[in-house]
Amino acid sequence: MKIKVLGPGCPNCQELEKRVKKAVEELKIEAEVIKVTDYAEIAKYVMMTPGVVIDEKVYHEGKPLPRVEQIKKWIEEKK
Amino acid sequence: MFKWFADFITYDLLRLPHEQHLSESLNFFLYDIPKIYFLLATIVFLVAIVRTFLPPEKIRKILSHKKELIGNFLAAAFGIFTPFCTCSAIPLFIGMLESGVPLGVTMSFLVSSPMINEVALILLWGLFGWKVALTYIVSGMGIAIASGFIIGRLKMEKEVEAFVFQIKTVTESEEKIDWKGRLTYAVDYVKDIFSQVWLYVLLGVGLGALIHGYVPVEFVTRYAGNSNPFAVIIAVALGVPLYSNAAGTIPVVQALMEKGLALGTTLAFMMAVTGLSLPEFIILRKVLKPKLLLTFFGTVALGIALIGYLFNLVF
Lengths: 79, 315
Fold this sequence. Notes:
The structure holds 2 protein chains of 2 kinds.
Chain A: E1 2-6, H1 11-27, E2 32-36, H2 39-45, E3 51-54, E4 57-61, H3 68-78
Parallel strand pairs in A: 1-2
Antiparallel strand pairs in A: 1-3, 3-4
Chain B: H1 2-13, H2 21-51, H3 56-63, H4 68-81, H5 89-98, H6 103-115, H7 118-128, H8 130-153, H9 179-214, H10 217-224, H11 231-239, H12 246-258, H13 263-275, H14 278-284, H15 290-314
């Protein structure tokens, strides 16, 4: 499973990356969490940052940030 | 109800005399703070719920390939409900263009989104009344529609950086949402707004309260009242380097207005602070070539100044 956290580097996307990593940790699954900061790359998926992309499907964009519980649900769904 | 609370604490409980600096300031402060926090919590919550029905994909679809003025109008309207983060400016721009939203329409959205937002409107309504809030929306949308329309007509598509048109976007989003999700979203959003804004509101109202109680009436009128023809230009110029969320400016502005700052100058200042953001323009340079960037800045600044002068004349 490949999870991309999209964001240019502002505090919000950093927080989101933390939450995604926490969700992965709590679910104890094998997943690669990648931070994408390049605007051109980000724009391929979302219009508003920060964003969450799991295995090339967009699960979240914009604010407010999703709760860890919500992120876990998405991961479970995707499996 | 809030006025009662403020009066009660200031005059009954603390037994402060009327018409004195301290009591006027305190009364103002105790009246505005709970009122504003209350309005923020309730209305932001409702707007957030509405927003869960309008995800970015839907907005994109609605706006793509629309005719000029209708598109400009819709884009400006959608911008009101879409929270704007400077870091989202680029993906937003690219995403819109990529789905076939015309350049002018995209610009209308980019103008209205940071400038008009529900938080600013709530504060305006709470502090100045619905007429001023309505004025702000209408003027803001007017500027957004006009700038977008003008840029569209100028056919500046080639002033957009080439790479923007080479990006291929992934289509569908998986985010399915149920009512539980909507409520969670709204609650989280209110929490977010509060955490961003509570201190500014406190500081802003505090400062406003001090000015309300202590600054003599003539002071502001002398320097920035109607008689100064440059007031609007100064207000717009001041707004450019100052970027803040609307919340921070409004209470200060209110107190200043009470002391004589003209309505037009006030509106111009607020719009300039939120709509002409230096950080945003710096970021947009990545996708807009200088000519387009300057045109964008120019039309918006001009629009704001015009609105300022117009309202100074009329009110």
